[in-house]
Structure formats: C-alpha cells, structure tokens
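Hi V.,

Quick status before I head out on leave. The structure for the redesign project is tokenized and pasted below; the design run finished overnight.
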C-alpha cells in the first residue's frame, strides 16, 4: 500500500522516509516493532489495550509499553473470528479475535479492555477464556464524575493496573515515577496539539492520510519516539512547498473506535474535503491538554479524564453537552460541514448521531452521514456522496 498524497506529489526525502516508517507501523499487525522493543531488554513487557482510551501514563510508570490494538483493518482475512460473534455487530472484535488466535498478539504480556460498549466487554471475556495465562483486565472507566466517588473508584482501578504491570516488569510504580510519566505524555500532548493547530491553519500541509499515519504511530512507538516523530513531521511539512486546493473544510465524527481504512480517508480528500478535525484514533488525545504535574498524580489523571477529556460517544455525557461542544468545535476550526461516519453496527456512535444531527441542524451546519467498516473495500459510493457534499457547499454554502 502506498500513500498518494492529495497534494499531488508523493512525499520524498526525509519526509518520505518518515511517512514510510509510519505506514510500516500502521501495517505491523504482527507487532514486530513491539517485539523489537522487547528484544532489547528481557524485563520489558507490553500491554495491549483496546479502543478507545486507557491512562497510558500508568503503564509507562510501571515500566511497560502501552500498545494500541485497533483491529485488523483491511489486511486481515477473517476465518475464525466470525465463529465467535454474531453477524450483526461491528467488525473490530472479529478481527481482534483473528489476530489473537493466529498468534499475532503474542508480543503482548497483558491486555486492557476499557469499558466502552458491550462488544468490548464480551471480547474481554473471550480473551480471559482463550488466554488464561495472560493478564486480562476490564478497565471500568468511571461514569460518575464526582471526585470522591468516580474519581476514587478510577484511582483504585489505575492503581490495580499499575500494580499488575509492575509485577510483570519488576518496576514498582511510585507517585514520583507516575508524575514523570505524566510529564512525558504531556510533551506528547503538546506535539499533537501543534500538529492539530497546523492542520486547522493550513490543512493543505497535512493531508488526512499523513495526519492519521503519524498520529497512529503513537499506538506502537514508545511515547518519547512518537513525540519526536510528530515534531519532525511538523517541521518537514512546514518547510514543504505544498499549495492549497479548492477543498472544503470538514469535521469527522463517529470514527473513535473501529477505524476506517486508509483508502477511505484518501477518498474523502480526493472528493474535495480537507479534514480539519476528527475523532480518528482519539484515544491518543482524549485528554487534549497537559495533565497537572503537581500534587497527587493519580488524582490528576482521574481529574483529567473526568473533567478535561474530549466529548465522545464512549464517555458518559453527564451534562448533556455533546451537541453544544460539537458546534463550538465546528466554529473553532471553521468547518464548512460535518461528516458523520460511523462503523456499521456501532451502538455508541449511532446512538449519538441523532443528538449531533439535531445540534447541527439548529446551528445551520451542513452534514452528511454514512457507515463504514474497517475492511470496507468499495469507495465509489462514498466518493460520490462526499464529492456531492463538497460541491454543494462550494456552490451554495449548504447542501
Ligand atoms: S466499533 Fe462501536 S460497537 Fe464496536 S467495539 Fe467499538 S464502540 Fe463498540
């Protein structure tokens, strides 16, 4: 698979090398990069986590490598995965099972399943049955956001994960090591925010496929390496001679868990859309701003998740603000329209859609919606739909 940049010329030189590396990581379904990392020290341990979000700082503080398991994408043929799940659910759990039973997740020493939906809960149960020798933990994220209730509960959950990882690595996590991990991840947050800002200011410099590959590399790379990659990418594209095209500016919502294939993102851009904001791979930036580096680090992480995370269908919307926040974001990034694209059969995304549509209608912001799956292979219909959406906005400012 190769990247055809919508800026017409494929990246060359150092930028081309960096993108080739990011693409290699995207396609690394045997997690060779993780095996390579582990081979350098036999005490190293990798903890795989399912979408959407886990507090990676906690794993880092216990000496582990957090690794995102984002499904098998469009490169995994499902042979045995289908026998574990009924046909009317999303695609991601089947491909994850397929990776597991084929030994492609053997690099992981443990697995975390954040509480985002029933599918992930069931998947965690299957992992427990199929891999009784491995650490498998269903990470209950809080639904109550009071510090003394949900915050306390979440702190307990995080400590239990830290202790379990620490037992594997022999590194006992301390307040000091967790504070240090928060600093390291804060540097990553700043680097991601620079990339996001550049994309909003000059979307022609940051094609969606490149943005996605460079961001997603953070699921496999040690965080320090990922921060360096982000910084280098931003510098390289700023120095490039890429020019603006006559594209509309769109936001994407609904793609927070099962990821669309890379070719779908390329299709959207070829249809005339610049992605200026999205929720792709959002677990890497669910807490967008730096977490407090002072005081109790467990409380700081709990506070960040409960009160400073991005709105997404997998996080309980205690104050019913998602519609308003969507409109605020659309205005902030000067979006001409919104693409509501959700994985087929994804309950959290599809249950959110009517609320988001109502907010968009009230605000007079054009939107269109479609479904995908991680192995979608036909893009003609989506290209026509997105192309018509873009043309209508260019011609009339609405659809
Ligand atoms: S795609 Fe949706 S339904 Fe499927 S595992 Fe993710 S959140 Fe759950």
């Amino acid at each position: 698979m190769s990247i055809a940049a919508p800026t017409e010329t494929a990246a060359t030189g150092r930028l081309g090398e960096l993108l080739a590396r990011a693409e290699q990581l995207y396609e690394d379904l045997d997690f060779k990069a993780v095996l390579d990392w582990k081979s350098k020290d036999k005490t190293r341990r990798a903890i795989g986590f399912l979408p959407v979000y886990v507090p990676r700082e906690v794993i880092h503080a216990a000496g582990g490598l957090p690794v995102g398991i984002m499904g098998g994408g469009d490169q995994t043929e499902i042979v045995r995965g289908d026998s574990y799940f009924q046909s009317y659910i999303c695609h991601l759990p089947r491909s994850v099972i397929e990776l597991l039973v084929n030994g492609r997740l053997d690099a992981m020493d443990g697995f975390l399943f954040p509480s985002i939906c029933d599918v992930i809960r069931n998947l965690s149960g299957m992992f427990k049955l199929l891999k009784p020798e491995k650490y498998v933990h269903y990470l209950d994220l809080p639904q109550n956001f009071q510090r003394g209730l949900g915050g306390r509960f979440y702190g307990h959950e995080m400590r239990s994960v830290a202790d379990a990882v620490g037992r594997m690595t022999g590194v006992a996590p301390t307040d000091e090591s967790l504070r240090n991990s928060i600093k390291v991840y804060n540097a990553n947050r700043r680097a991601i925010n620079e990339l996001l800002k550049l994309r909003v200011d000059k979307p022609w410099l940051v094609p969606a496929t490149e943005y996605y590959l460079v961001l997603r590399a953070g699921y496999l790379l040690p965080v320090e390496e990922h921060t360096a990659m982000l910084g280098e990418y931003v510098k390289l594209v700023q120095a490039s001679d890429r020019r603006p095209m006559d594209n509309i500016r769109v936001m994407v919502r609904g793609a927070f868990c099962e990821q669309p294939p890379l070719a779908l993102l390329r299709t959207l851009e070829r249809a005339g859309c610049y992605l200026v904001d999205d929720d792709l791979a959002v677990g890497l930036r669910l807490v967008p701003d730096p977490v407090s580096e002072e005081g109790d680090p467990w409380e700081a992480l709990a506070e960040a998740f409960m009160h400073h995370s991005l709105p997404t269908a997998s996080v309980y919307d205690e104050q019913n603000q998602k519609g308003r926040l969507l409109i605020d974001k659309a205005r902030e990034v000067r979006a001409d329209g919104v693409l509501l694209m959700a994985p087929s059969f994804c309950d959290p995304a599809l249950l959110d859609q009517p609320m988001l549509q109502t907010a968009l209608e009230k605000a007079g912001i054009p939107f269109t919606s479609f479904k995908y799956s991680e192995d979608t292979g036909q893009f003609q219909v989506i290209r026509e739909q997105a192309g018509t959406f873009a043309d209508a906005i260019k011609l009339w400012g609405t659809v």
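Above is the designed sequence. The CA atoms of residues 48 and 111 lie 5 Å apart.

G. will cover questions while I'm gone.

Best,
W.
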